[in-house]
Amino acid sequence: MSATDMSGNSSSPAMMKEELKQKFCRLHQKAKELGLKDDDFNKIEALREISQRNKKKNVITLYLWKSFGLVFAVYVAICLVWCLEWPVKNDVMLSIYFRLQGLSEEDIYREPCVLEPLESMQDMFRPPLPCDFCKGINKIDKVANIKPEEFENTYAYSARPVVITDGMKNWTATEKFSFSFFKNIYKEGSPALENVENNCQFFPYKTSFKNLGEVFQMDEERATMKDGSTPWYIGWSNCDANAGNILRQHYNRPYFLPPVAESSKTDWVFMGSPGYGAHLHLDNVGHASWQAQVTGTKKWTLEPPVECYLDCEGTMEVTVRPGDIIVLDTNKWYHSTLNVGNDISITIGSEYD
Q1: Distance CA 113, CA 118 (A)
Q2: What is the pLDDT of residues 226-237, one digit of tens each?
Q3: Are 181 and 328 within one domain?
Q4: Residue 50: inside a domain, yes or no?
């Protein structure tokens, strides 16, 4: 409803409030000139009610500001702890959060992200790494017939990269794994595909694929680039038990892993056509990992983190061929991959502790 003064001119609520305030101040001043004191004003019922209302408003406003300040301070503290990973590591924070939710630690790696993290921001706020792991390393070793004890002492927990050239002894994966093999496991409408898309991680890299289902909607011509299409490369974590059982029929625990080492229950699969791969990046996973080159050929490029450039050698490259297994701590080494040759590259791997 619009307000109109006696002259017929309309006034806004703000103007009316200011006019009333000025009138009240003039009335208050005149009352003081006539000899009224503050105690006399306090005896006026209407003024007492106005004063009490103002006090309540002030108390509520102060409470809201204090609550906001406390929440903001807690939020900033959590962000700083998360970015600096001090005094608590991120995996410990996640473990506590998931336990409070009544979930197991395995669910940490199944929970989908609300927002995709920006790698540039992650790298900016990550804590610096000690450079002992890369000092004196100027090439990636290639070994065969290595005993678990030797592997444990030299490579397993030192972050020193190595390629085991006979790591897939007695595996049938080299004969069975193919684009059509995985397409059959994760066929449209299957529980395996639904579980992966709802509960597992999918890495489209710089392709247009939104999920694993879209990948397997490709026909063989597109998958092998025989139709002249552009290269593609994707990856995913399999957290479907039935699919995992099928995969493990065709590969074994790598013979060189130490007896005390346990592999994660989650399989990681990377697949793509020649001419494409993963860009240079650091991972943020729990442990070091092994990755078996089942089909195709992949060139790996490793670099130490920027804080170690003065202490460690520069770029190293290695070509991993079918039958090879590369062992690498991807949390410490910047790494990129490129599928080379003529065949689709299929890699399967897992973390180990």
Answers
A1: 12
A2: 878 889 999 999
A3: yes
A4: no
342 and 228 part of one domain: yes
pTM, full prediction: 0.68
In a domain, 118, yes or no: no
Q: Identify whether 88 is part of a domain.
A: no
Q: Per-residue pLDDT tens for 59-89?
A: 788 888 888 888 898 888 888 887 877 787 7
Domain assignment of residue 228, given as a range: 131-351
pLDDT tens for each residue of 164-200: 999 998 899 999 999 999 999 999 999 999 998 888 8
Asked if the structure places residue 56 within a domain, the reply is no
User: How many structural domains are present in the chain?
Assistant: 2
39 and 168 share a domain?
no
CATH number of residue 250's parent domain: 2.60.120.650
Compute the Cα dihedral for 98, 104, 105, 111 and give only its sign: negative
32, 140: one domain: no
